[in-house]
UniProtKB/TrEMBL annotation:
Cross-referenced InterPro entries: Glyas_Bleomycin-R_OHBP_Dase (IPR029068), Glyoxalase_6 (IPR041581)
Glyoxalase-like domain location: 11-105
Official protein name in the record: Glyoxalase-like domain-containing protein
Source species, domain of life: Bacteria
Pfam families reported for this sequence: Glyoxalase_6 (PF18029)
Coiled-coil ranges (or none): none
């Protein structure tokens, strides 16, 4: 594999019980909100940033940053990964590795 992957600090969960999840992370755990949109809230937790999104429930999604998302996707598919969800308008490309871990392939900032 020629693509260099680097983890981001972001983890996203999606829930259909969004308002209660936001309340839990704000009130119960006391995480400060650092991002808010109509469908997503981001919390600063310390070691990572947790995003809670409205929608169909799925497990945690980690994020790996690459220089070329399409090249990384091709290499991952050739290595046995599967695309779980893709939406170029977000942009988002969720991939599940052969061991069950789901992650987003994100565009790394230009260096």
């Amino acid at each position: 594999m020629t693509t260099a992957f680097r983890s981001a600090r972001d983890i996203i969960i999606r829930t259909d019980d969004w308002a209660q999840a936001v309340s839990f992370y704000t009130s119960t755990l006391g995480f400060p909100q650092v991002y808010r949109s109509e469908n997503m809230v981001g919390f600063e937790t310390g070691a990572f940033r947790l995003y809670v999104e409205k929608g169909e429930v799925h497990g945690p999604v980690f994020e790996y940053l690459v220089q070329d998302v399409q090249e990384a996707k091709r290499e991952l598919l050739a290595a046995g990964c599967t695309v779980v969800e893709e939406n170029a308008s977000v942009p988002r490309c969720y991939v599940r590795d052969p061991y069950g871990v789901t992650f987003n392939i994100g565009q790394a900032p230009a260096t």
